[in-house]
């Protein structure tokens, strides 16, 4: 067993903060990702958390600030469950680092994404009781994990617009996949913001603040912003001038065969995932066994819900030699994925939504 | 004055059915498109319409079918107004026909898009009074304009899912830009389905039918489906096997300078539009004066509403000689546009969302 209860074959990018993703094939077998396989993205040390002493504060632009123990919170509002795919903004970053180096950022493969069944309460219910005041426009989440990566070092935080916070899918969750939320995934309570970058699903949540402006936390105001691909000199590293990342866009990855695998040639099962944005589903996935020269249509699983990835499967007849397998997805709005990572490269390595490519050697 | 009250410099692709788009520069000057400039897309002859005899029938899976005159309809529900950009699924098709011929489809440039301020009632209010029954899942629109292009020839129609039909932005409109809806744009009453392909905003609307399944009209069941880029032989022409088009994806076009223009070299204003999908805005537009070798960021107008295009402007310093101007937009979900139309080509020529390119000669 690896750190934090993770399986032995996780790729641990950093031990502290703990950043780890499962091998790609481990994501291929089921819609829900087991807790020991779920990717883990942190910005500081996992904080000590004593559920008995833990409280959630709800404050800011509200008529009735709240302070609640976990028992109070669980008793006060109707619990609900939802399957949600969480994806890091840096998922598939290695596709961009192959184009040009991205120093200082975790080299995520396609495994910075996982799907859980979360149980908790609706943030909207909490906010309704706290009664946002006129001028309320954003809801900030704060946690106790101090990040040395922030400038200056500060506890992790972020925010979402009030309109998103009031949607029924946004949860404060204490359970994942039918078990108590693992400590490394935010116990006793985390935000779950479906359809948005994982960075907004703040773990070890201790404070919800209603504001007129977005959070001024480093991870909202500076990081997790998509910088220009060709930034002005001196602005690149910090993401300044970039657009804040929030909702997820269409993405897709190949899970099997593994990249750099050596395989027998002939009929080869190929499988992967695709994730459409809010209000959309994955309409089609094409797969190519010759670097995009010809394509065949994959079987795409039905969407199990509006916030969940869809797996796809096909069988390619692979020739002997070095083969590049390529996939491309379309969503139900006809959105096509960009072909080249070169055109998506940015100095923070966010939002690689280019066609996934897997190179294998067939004998 | 051209046919149907359109300006003289419209590009009339066909006289019957009347299909016409404005010159691209005519779309650059204002957020709202004047009625004489608004693109017109038809599938059959514009039907005779006598407002005094016209009625709207609401039927299908409803407890209380309705039959209403225009006066009854206008008196019964609270009117509302909304700015909406309508875009044909075939907008920018010429970017695809440059890759490979697309016989039988109208060669739209970037002008199959326009923005109006529509006044009408909410379809949701009408449906609430008609009371959809259990099993209701789609809302079909029918009109009297018989299309000879359909197989077999039939009146034009289409549908949207009930969840979309119940959203507050979906209107039944009798007015555009403060004036009565022009006859060619659907008077006395048309559907306006913001954020979806123009084909679902059915004109000369006479019937709204609540159904358990999508409309089986030719223009829902066969046309306006995105076929595979590399379809199986024999299935290409009809769009069979394609995914039904509905919500719009991120798009962008260059309006000035005109394609193939001869210009003085030096600082040159460049302007265009970009349109994000539902729940998203245009976050950034980059423009290149050297075919994408280098880029500068354009000023993007604020979104005037959730369903309206955004204009963008910059000034490029163009060198002497043949120059290719390229633009690319990002939406607020970090969605990037595909670079190449070659990778988007499909036998119906829908959904060209590749980087727009304008070639000019500078002297």
From TrEMBL, chains A, B:
Oxidoreductase molybdopterin-binding domain span: 43-219
Pfam family, one: Mo-co_dimer
Family matches, as SUPFAM superfamilies: E set domains (SSF81296), Oxidoreductase molybdopterin-binding domain (SSF56524)
Residue spans crossing the bilayer: none
Moybdenum cofactor oxidoreductase dimerisation domain residues: 248-361
Region (Disordered): 1-46
Basic and acidic residues bias (residue ranges): 1-18
Keywords, in A-Z order: Metal-binding, Molybdenum, Oxidoreductase
Cell division among keywords: no
Cofactor(s) in the UniProt record: Mo-molybdopterin
Oxidoreductase as UniProt keyword: yes
InterPro entries, per database record: Ig_E-set, MoCF_OxRdtse_dimer, Mopterin_OxRdtase_euk, OxRdtase_Mopterin-bd_dom, OxRdtase_Mopterin-bd_sf
Protein name from the UniProt record: Sulfite oxidase
Species the sequence originates in: Streptomyces ambofaciens
